UniProtKB/TrEMBL annotation:
Active site positions, chain numbering: 296
The organism's taxonomic lineage, starting at the top: Bacteria, Pseudomonadati, Pseudomonadota, Alphaproteobacteria, Acetobacterales
Any GO MF annotation of the entry: electron transfer activity
Family: Belongs to the bacterial PQQ dehydrogenase family.
A Pfam family recorded for this sequence: PQQ
Organism from which the protein derives: Acetobacter garciniae
Protein name: PQQ-dependent dehydrogenase, methanol/ethanol family
InterPro entries recorded: Cyt_c-like_dom, Cyt_c-like_dom_sf, PQQ_b-propeller_rpt, PQQ_MeOH/EtOH_DH, PQQ_rpt_dom, Quinoprotein_ADH-like_sf, Quinoprotein_DH_CS
Domain of life of the source: Bacteria
Named cofactor requirement(s): Ca(2+); pyrroloquinoline quinone; heme c
Cysteines paired by S-S bonds: 95-96
Keyword Calcium in annotation: yes
Amino acid sequence: MAVPDRDWPQHGRTTAEQRYSPLTQIDTHTVGRLGLAWYQDFDTFRGQEGTPLVVDGVMYVTTNWSKVEALNAATGAVLWRYDPRVPGNVAAKGCCDTVNRGAAYWEGRVYIGTFDGRLIALDARTGHQLWSVNTIPAEASLGGIRSYTIDGAPRVAKGVVMIGNGGAEFGARGFVSGFDGRTGALKWRFYTVPAPGNRPDGAASDTVLAQKAYRTWSPTGAWTRSGGGGTVWDSIVYDPQTDLVFLGVGNGSPWSYKVRSNGVGSNLFLGSIVAIRPETGEYVWHFQETPMDQWDFTASQPMMVLDLTIGGVRRHLLAQAPKNGFFYLLDAASGEFVSAIPYTFLNWADGVDPLTGRPRVVPDALWSLTGQTWMGIPGSLGGHNWAPMAYSPRTGYVYIPAQQLPEPFKSEKDFHLHAMGVNLGIDMAGLPDVPAVIAAVTSGVKGWLEAWDPVAGKVAFRVEHDTAWNGGVLATAGDLVFQGLATGGFEAYNARTGAVLYHFDAHTGIVAPPISYAVDGRQYVAVEAGWGGVFPLMGGALARYRNPGINHSRLLVFALDGHARLPAETRTGQLPTPITQTADQAQVPAGYDLYQHYCLACHGDNAVGGGVLPDLRFSGALASSDAFNAVVARGALTAYGMVGFSSVLAAQDVEKIRQFLISRAVARQAAETGKK
Ligand SMILES: O=C(O)c1cc(C(=O)O)c2c(n1)C(=O)C(=O)c1cc(C(=O)O)[nH]c1-2
Ligand SMILES: [Ca+2]
């Protein structure tokens, strides 16, 4: 069905997922007149990753904690709001904040996946709930050992609503479910990795897992308990021309290939794109980008469908720039390998087999087998993560929000699976608190907008940014490319040259992708502002380094001659609570280890907050072991997403963490005083 130029009805606007708007009112000549038309504050300071949808002048926005709102897309007037009331205690079941990347729209219904695993259909006119299903079958959670959350957007094809989930950093066995869009009845499930002992699940994946996947795993690896991973936590694309649904399958669980699969097998379908039929979930083809995953190299990054002339032949292709650093082109109908060319510097492989596309992995990169530390580029956050890329058929370029975040990979001593906290099998030692070391490591951290020529297989131009983890991208027929930045800018670039044509100070880091739409002949560009996602949560000093600002979560909508203004910045962030205690040094090293295991994922490496969730060096609760225990052990702040850890941390452990944090607070205070 043709999509009207004015609308943005699907995640990537059309089924091709190119994030290209044909609107031209805002172009290279008029963009100088761009301004903020209106904005709306969200109800949280957490991060925002959503792509709004626009259908017939109504905008459907999803926000953190899986909330939805419908707005008049011209004025911002709220038509309805929907809160699925996700319980705060599930925040700790996800790696990367309680974000949400968007809704799906189909025949007057809005579909949303919730962080606690539900799929909900709403009446698009009223916001009333039509149905709600729990997408996580009881047996999948293995008595609570495994962790499932939803933050990706559902996908609708032929009346079937499909959704996956996240959790491979904790313990999960990836699967995607298809539900009847009208009734919510389950139609099929497709598991992306086998069950221990090759047991059938009674699912659409049974045959292919038995025939192709089971023998690619060691029958006795830790995957038999942790689930193996392979979560489909973001990209699911439907191509009507081939009638195929493409699943972007994630990384292994635990990360360590040695622990997970005794260091044998390619572990299908980890790091793969799997093509299935929408109505049945029937397997059609797969392509594995990263065999033997041990770098968190997911193939879950956004995919798009492109028709390109390669070597004189017109081809219908699937394109992806996954974490592993190669830009892939596959034949959309058959999955046949076309090309894989590095879109960024990478050191884990020295190329791919030209016939099969299988990477030639550098032996030293297999850190879980060598027992040595591997300095990997890309690191686990990838050369490109979930922030969507865009394609302009006018320029022929794919615009990739690319980055470089090197990362040391080293085996954890004495790995064992545990409930709560991440299960990676990797040494969690982080950055030392030494400014020169932080500066040196940060010098390797880079982010840029890359115009990639997929036909020539090379970079056309790059726009260098100040740091990594920048926003998703929009391309328009006005020959503009829009992108929000980690450092708080919202930019428009000339799509042919990369020249900056417009800059707006958003007062906050932006990671979400912009969209464009029109109402009554006026073109708008909208983006959800709000610094967030995994990097600011766990990145610590690296995430803070060039982004010392305060987080704001709000929807920004731009148009020609817009004259709205953001309120002046009055928040100063967390107020330092003067710390008078000195840490019990004997407890600090053990407190550090516990912190890195249980707390780092949200509060940042070495207790440096990355700008979204509280930086615990400022916490008033540090002064009292009772208060600290009430929060950390007994869960006094559970409603806000800070669960109690009493099931895994004894009172002495909690006290060790407190002593470690006091030592960090004292160091921060000393550094501040030294500066004055
Ligand atoms: O393996 C998984 O199940 C899983 C889930 C998610 C998620 O659900 O957000 C992310 C990742 N992995 C991941 O590897 C990753 O880099 C990542 C970044 C983000 C984010 O929202 O910033 N989520 C996720
Ligand atoms: Ca992952």
